[in-house]
Amino acid sequence: MATDGKETKSQRIRFILAAALDEFVDKGFAAARLDSIAERAGVAKGTIYLYFDTKETLFEQAVRAVIGPMVARFESMAAAPEEDAETILRQMIRTLYREVITDPRKRNLLRLIISQGPRFQRLLRFYHDELIARSMAALRRVLAYGVERGEFGCSPAVDQPQIIFGPALTAAIWTILFEEIEPIDLDAYCEAHLDFMLRGLKAPA
C-alpha cells in the first residue's frame, strides 16, 4: 500500500525507536551500537542521524515512546477525574502492573536503568523525570482528590506517596531477579497490593 512521505517517516521512526529499545535492553547503553540498531530497524545507519543527533537522544526518545502513553493516561485520570478516587487509584495501579511489571520489554528497561543508571546520570534523570516524577505528580493529585472527597484519611501515605507505588517496584525487581526460581502470581499480587494500600488510605468510618 502506498503511503505519503509523512506516513513513511513516522513508520521509519517507530521502527528505529523499537529497534533501539531492544538493542539498549539486550546490550546495555554503553555497548549498544547504532550499526546494530540500524540493522534491527532495517534502515541505513545514516538514517538514524536524520532523526536523532546522539545515542543519548535516541535512548530518551525510545523510552518516551514506550512509557509516554501510560504516563499520559495517569495524568489524564488525575487532571479531570470522572470517578471516585478509589476507582481511579485501582485503575492506575492495575495499569502499572499490566503495562510495566508484566511487560518484559518495559520490565527489562527498568532493569537497565537500575544496572546502568548510576553510570549515566543523564539517562537516569530522564527516566525519573519522564516516568517517576510525572506519575508521582498524578498520584498526588488523586490522593488529594480522595482526601477532599472524604474517601481517604490524612494517612502518612498521602504525604509519602512513594509507598503507594513501592510494592509494584518490589514486584518488578523480584520478577527480574527471581522469576525462574520463585515466580510471583502478578495478578494475585496486584490485588493484594490494592487491598493493603486501600486499607491504609481509607478514612475511618
TrEMBL record:
Pfam families: TetR_C_7 (PF14246), TetR_N (PF00440). The keyword DNA-binding applies. PROSITE patterns: HTH_TETR_2. Residues 33-52 bind DNA. This is TetR family transcriptional regulator. One of its GO terms (molecular function) is DNA-binding transcription factor activity. The keyword Transcription applies. Keywords: DNA-binding, Transcription, Transcription regulation. Residues 10-70 form the HTH tetR-type domain. InterPro entries: Homeodomain-like_sf, HTH-type_TetR-like_transc_reg, HTH_TetR, Tet_transcr_reg_TetR-rel_C_sf, TetR_C_Proteobacteria.
